[in-house]
Specification:
This protein is mainly α. It is elongated, with a radius of gyration of 21 Å. It has nine helices and no strands.
């Protein structure tokens, strides 16, 4: 299947998905389940990765900026801005593309090859809207909380380094994360993550929805979903950064 055919299929699928739910009661029943599965169940991996990245950023920044001309608090400042501008939005979403994207693609793909989606269509249900809309909506709603949580845990990881090592003092680190804070950076990070969340959920749903074959094809669809989501995230990261920070 060529590139333009895939774009056309994806666009037509989103036209079917992004309409008011046929059955509002079913949507409201499914939506909290997706919030838990796509959002709350991602908290442990977000926490583990963020605390280590925050600690590593603090150590590497301090070791690579040993210059008497730089103020001591610059380590905390660099760690804070790196977490806000890139890690807690872009890198985190690349990681979640692997976890959540493969989960969505395999779930919907399995329903396709077991003919559950065909059964929904026979009953007159808009299967795309019924299956995909709750996933996209739930992940887009949850991603700002995951981004803020990741940034906070990353800063705590740096604070742990300052507390339990002699790399940097706690006072200098805290001063750095407070110094010249721009709330716009947080807005920028959240806006990026909302776009990335839509990309992850919609692209994974697309590959799962159009699976043909057997279990091997479901695995291939999951791989394609993760790879193409990651490429699109990097592309839109460049576009949004140029628009919002230039």
């Amino acid at each position: 299947m060529n590139f333009f055919t895939q774009i056309g299929q994806y666009t037509l699928l989103m036209r079917r998905v992004l309409v008011p739910a046929d059955n509002g009661r079913m949507f409201l029943r499914q939506f909290p389940k997706e919030l838990e599965k796509l959002g709350l169940q991602s908290l442990p991996i977000v926490m583990i990765i963020s605390v280590f990245i925050g600690a590593i950023l603090t150590i590497q920044t301090k070791l690579n900026t040993e210059n008497p001309m730089l103020p001591a608090y610059s380590t905390g400042l660099v760690t804070r801005d790196t977490l806000l501008l890139e890690f807690s939005s872009t890198i985190l979403c690349l990681i979640l593309a692997g976890k959540i994207g493969s989960n969505i693609a395999s779930e919907i793909g399995t329903m396709r090859i077991t003919e559950q989606i065909d059964a929904l269509e026979i009953m007159g249900v808009n299967s795309a809207n019924y299956l995909i809309l709750p996933k996209i909506t739930a992940f887009v709603v949850m991603i700002p909380f995951l981004v803020i949580f990741s940034a906070a845990i990353g800063l705590i990881g740096g604070l742990l380094v300052a507390t339990f090592t002699d790399v940097i003092t706690v006072a200098d680190y805290v001063l750095g994360i407070q110094y010249a804070f721009l709330p716009y950076y947080l807005l920028y990070s959240i806006v990026k993550s909302l776009v990335f969340a839509f990309i992850i959920a919609s692209v994974a749903s697309y590959y799962g929805y159009f699976v043909r074959g057997g279990a091997l094809d479901v695995g291939r669809a999951s791989t394609n979903a993760v790879v193409n989501s990651s490429i699109l995230i990097l592309f839109f990261n460049l576009m949004i950064t140029n628009l919002m920070l230039n």
